[in-house]
Amino acid sequence: MNSLLLKSAAELSALLRAGEITSVELTTACLDRIEALNPKVNAFLYVDREGALEVARGVDAARAEGQELHPLAGIPIAVKDNICTRGIPTTAASKILEGWRPPYDASVVVKIKEARLPIVGKTNMDEFAMGSSTEHSAFGPSRNPWDLNRIPGGSGGGSAAAVGAFMVPLALGSDTGGSIRQPAAVTGTVGTKPTYGAVSRFGLIAMASSLDQIGPVTRTVEDAALLQELLSGHDPHDSTSLPDTPSGLVAACHGEAGSWEGAGSDPERPLEGLKVGLVEEMHGEGYAPGVLEAFENAVARMRELGAETVELSCPSFHYSLAAYYLIMPAEVSSNLARFDGMRYGLRVEPEEGPVTAETVMRATRAAGFGEEVKRRIILGTHVLSAGNFDAFYGAALRVRTLVQRDLEQAFSRCHVIVSPTSPTVAFPFGSKTNDPLAMYLNDIATIPANLAGIPGISLPAGLSEGLPVGLQILSPARADALMYRVAAAIDAALGHNVPAACPARDWEE
Ligand code: GLN
């Protein structure tokens, strides 16, 4: 493999700025590796070679003229296929959107284009972001670069597999209940769900709007900070966009922002004075022993770096998964009502009987949606129906408030919370496909952050059974810089070495 592909975006940025490499050279290396490996990994649903190279050529010409460019200009990026890209197919891995080319760009894509990052293609995912394995993609699952017989996580398994297999240094994901963090955990990559509202959702195909958030997938914490800073900013097209989005994320990775009360100044002890919460409900029953061992080692390392640990309890977390699986489908049933065979993509006419709006809608939705999507629409419609609304949806909203309160109380006693990101390492294909509840349990540690709107990052914490284990760090809303500062210190202490140990490094192209 071209050795440029092993480098982080921060390193590539320095090489590009120094004129030691060109964006065309780098982008071509990514595209060649994608072409060679995608049949094996199925990380990409669409590759835009010409479009990416055109941007790369433009960046090289602008640099030759001495123009001032964004630090990430010229660095290739992959975009999850539920994020709209003008003129480029965007399917959310569903048959119902097959062949649809959006007439507009998502706000994050506008920012990427303004900063001139070549978009190499669109990544595979569970249909409409519903799942934890990519097995619900209508176009076949993506494979884990650590073991091709295992899932790369989901729903954003394509983005995580692409970054983990050194096809591209940067990717975008979306996280409704863990779809950036859990794939990052099981592929040995880094993934962040920013504070709700920090990154615009305009142009993200909505799953559950009160939970959805776009964020970065990378191989280092600093790269995630660089990309989140590019994506952030108020967007008048998104009514939930924050007026002042968290900043200082890259500076925080260098210990220059995101500090906490009582922080020390000894460079050997970067976490001095940091209170780290360990939530009883997030590292016990249901977590694999090997995952817990890697997690405990990471916590021990944090103590060596100066952190103090605080034992906490968040009793509402026992009900957070149940609450999520009521609130999310309720929003799904409403958001997916727009796929009616009239407006976008697929249109199927009934085989017999009259052709009316209703029969076309029924035939289109029956043919276009996969089983998991149908399951959630039915569940959501049920929990929102007149007789059930209060018992199910209302009760779930009350649990959501309790989760927010438990977290507020927890953060009155600690600066950040840490936990394993996912209860197990990557599991083999087919082992949970027919058991939706077993599949839903993958999200047990990631869901509270979505319910409360707080930021969360997953970074590689070590290996169990030769497979990566993710460490999750949560901080209060808008304290994204604090989260990045802590994550970068741990990433440096652990030697940034997990992604580099991935066997995909040695794959022949
Ligand atoms: N796995 C979770 C689900 O199936 C999370 C999905 C997501 O974050 N998009 O709902």
User: What separation lies between the terminal Cα atoms?
Assistant: 7 Å
CATH H-tier superfamily of the domain at 3-261:
Amidase signature (AS) domain
Query: Which architecture of the domain at 3-261 does the CATH hierarchy give at level 2?
Result: Alpha-Beta Complex
Whole-angstrom Rg: 22 Å
Strand order of the largest sheet: 1-3-2-4-6-5-10-11-9-7-8
Strand pairing plus helix content: what structural class? Answer: alpha/beta
Order of helices and strands: HHEHEHEHEHEEHHEHEHHHHEHHEEH
Give the strand tally: 11
CATH level 1 name of the domain at 3-261 = Alpha Beta
Give average pLDDT, whole number.
Answer: 96
Bin the helical content: 25-40%
Bound molecules: glutamine
List the helices and strands and how they pair.
Layout: H1 9-17, H2 23-41, E1 44-47, H3 49-64, E2 77-80, H4 107-115, E3 119-123, H5 157-164, E4 170-174, H6 181-187, E5 190-193, E6 214-218, H7 221-231, H8 249-253, E7 275-279, H9 289-304, E8 308-312, H10 320-335, H11 357-368, H12 371-384, H13 390-411, E9 416-420, H14 436-440, H15 447-452, E10 456-464, E11 467-474, H16 480-493
Bound molecules: glutamine.
Explain this structure.
With 509 residues, this protein is α/β, with parallel strands linked by helices. The chain has a domain at 3-261: Amidase signature (AS) enzymes, CATH 3.90.1300. It has helices spanning 9-17, 23-41, 49-64, 107-115, 157-164, 181-187, 221-231, 249-253, 289-304, 320-335, 357-368, 371-384, 390-411, 436-440, 447-452, 480-493; strands at 44-47, 77-80, 119-123, 170-174, 190-193, 214-218, 275-279, 308-312, 416-420, 456-464, 467-474. An eleven-stranded mixed beta sheet has the order 1-3-2-4-6-5-10-11-9-7-8, sandwiched between helices. β10 (456-464) and β11 (467-474) form a beta hairpin. α2 (23-41) runs antiparallel to α3 and α10 packs across α13 (390-411). The longest helix has 22 residues, at 390-411. The model has no long low-confidence stretch (mean pLDDT 96). Bound molecules: glutamine. Glutamine (GLN) binds at residues 129-132, 154-155, 175-179, 207, 328, 443. Residues 129-132, 154-155, 175-179, 207, 328, 443 line the site of glutamine.
